[in-house]
Write a structure and sequence with these properties.
Elements lengths: L1 H9 L6 H7 L7 H14 L8 H10 L2
Length: 64
Amino acid sequence: SAFMLASKVICDDTYSNKSWSIVIAQDIFQLRETNQMEREMCQYLEWELNVNPVTLREFEETTR
């Protein structure tokens, strides 16, 4: 679900959740489950789907 959300934030034209269920999960998860995982991830992130540029730069510096 993290990869799916990242794609949706970055790309204007992305897969539907049904397509994600097929492409990423290889039909392991049903559409209902994919939707649930997306909702749970958004809730976990408190709907903050963008990263502050300063925070990103600090993260990049510490991981080099």
